[in-house]
Amino acid sequence: MNLPAFEKVIINVSPLICLARSKHIYLLKNFANEVWVPEPVAKEILY
């Protein structure tokens, strides 16, 4: 059984965009139990 490496992580915009574009965003759930996206990062992605 593989458990996530971390309980919580905060992700920046560059790795988030890279994972999404490469269709590997699902890997985040293997990396941590919680992934936090700061509000400025979310705004940069959404707008």
Strand content: 15-25%
Instruction: Decide which structural class fits the backbone.
Output: alpha+beta
Average predicted confidence as pLDDT: 89
Uncertain spans: none
Task: Fill in the keyword field for this structure.
two-stranded parallel ribbon, 3 helices, flat, 2 strands, 47 residues, alpha+beta, 45% helix
Structure report:
The protein has helices spanning 13-21, 28-31, 39-46; strands spanning 6-10, 32-36. The chain has 47 residues and is of the alpha+beta class. It has one domain (6-46). A two-stranded parallel ribbon has the order 1-2. The protein is flat and about 35 Å long.
Topology:
Elements: E1 6-10, H1 13-21, H2 28-31, E2 32-36, H3 39-46
Parallel strand pairs: 1-2
Give a brief outline of the structure.
Helix content is 45%, strand content 21%. It is of the alpha+beta class.
